[in-house]
Design a protein that fits this description.
This protein is of the alpha+beta class and 428 residues long. It has two domains: 209 residues, UDP-n-acetylglucosamine1-carboxyvinyl-transferase, Chain (Alpha-beta prism); 213 residues, Enolpyruvate transferase domain (UDP-n-acetylglucosamine1-carboxyvinyl-transferase, Chain, Alpha-beta prism), CATH 3.65.10.10. Helices cover 31% and strands 25% of the residues. It has 14 helices and 26 strands. It has a four-stranded mixed beta sheet. It has a four-stranded mixed beta sheet with strand order 2-17-19-18. A hairpin with a 6-residue loop joins strand 14 and strand 15. Helix 6 runs parallel beside helix 7. It is elongated and about 70 Å long. Bound molecules: ligand EPZ.
Amino acid sequence: MDRLHVRGGRSLEGTVHNAGAKNACLSILSASLLTKKTLTLSNLPALSDVDTMLEILQRLGTVVERETQDGVVRCRTSEIAEPTAPWDLVRKMRASFEVLGPLLGRCGRARVSYPGGCLIGVRPVDTHLRGLEALGARVRTEGGNVLAEAPSGGLRGGDVYLGTPAGSSVGATRNVLMAAVLARGTSVLSSAACEPEVVDLAHCLQAMGADIEGAGSPTITVRGVDGLDGAEHAIIPDRIEAGTFLVAGALTGGRVRVEGVRPDHHSALLDAFVRAGVPIEKGGDWIETQTRDPRLDPLRPTDITTQPYPGFPTDLQAQWMALMLAVPGVSIITETIFEDRYMHLPELARLGASVRRHANSAIVCGGKRLSGANLMASDLRASAALVLAGLIAEGKTTIHRVYHIDRGYERIEARLGALGATIRREQQ
Ligand code: EPZ
């Protein structure tokens, strides 16, 4: 397993291009199962999660052509011999559960393994399953798999409620949306997730001929169509990746410009930057942190609470904590989406960070001296936070189990290195 070695103390400077959004493209790849025609996607990020999804599609019968340049991939699924996604693939990545809706919509039946457990909480799939049932599917569990079957005549439109104790489910909204586009009649999805990644999926489905209204709002109306066509679609930029690079700039007091972003996707992060005193400039498709001397011009401790979009994203919670470690004073970070998304706390403590957990909040006493250590990456975003903390720790920080980071960040060491970070990968 590869490791990353980071030496702290360098202020970052330069420009980085924002890659395509992992969490948009994974479900959009699943959507290619809804048509016999070719779906051509561009701006696909080069990530291990994307490789896993393409492997699942190929097992289902998709012919995949991938170009190395511009992240272009063409998916064509003329036939699906067996609508089954087995455990050995689905366990690797929860997003692969989102093949369920398209398989059921197209084939009238599907067998998909329950997704693997996850280090950020229990992550049930009850909302996905109730949503498919509301479209007429019969759903049961057997041998660790979800078996879903449409009634004779196929799925029918229905009223679907997608709320969860934490708000709405992003994955369930996408799974049910993909099933509903080929159902007979009209479906009304209420308490739908409003995340940009849901909207991007809806735009791609519309380009394929689906009749969808209201994506990006809590109520989405879908009028089922008889079939979908091929289409071309460019994946939106990854707002979490962009946010991580901007936090890296803010943390080191450097000028980091992220290009190819959608500034309108970042309102909660930009507001938090303003409250913290991070100097920011932005334009039509870029955001830039401005140079600041952290000793002369320290930031203000700033609380955040994670919320569904457009609130502060849970996927940037750990990175925000890394930023607050550098800020003298107390800040409170509250996680409301996942019950156990604090795997980075004990690792940050190894650097000398002072963070205490109280219920679903973390109390950060920032401004303490951090010194490099060996750290263990756990989940994707927690691992990104460890790299960020390494940028401000004295001496060398080694992050083990880097494959977690490779799931969601393209060549993070090369891109941070190009901004002036002292970081290298040791391959094992
Ligand atoms: C998506 O996960 C993202 N993953 C996550 O990104 C992100 O953290 C999350 O949305 C929230 O924004 C992808 O898009 C591939 P949810 P998802 O269903 O869809 C509860 C990253 O780091 N819930 O919106 O799995 C659930 O337990 C990842 O890139 C139910 O109760 O998240 C949680 O508390 C990690 N029942 C809340 O809803 C269900 O059936 C939100 O989960 C489904 C979810």
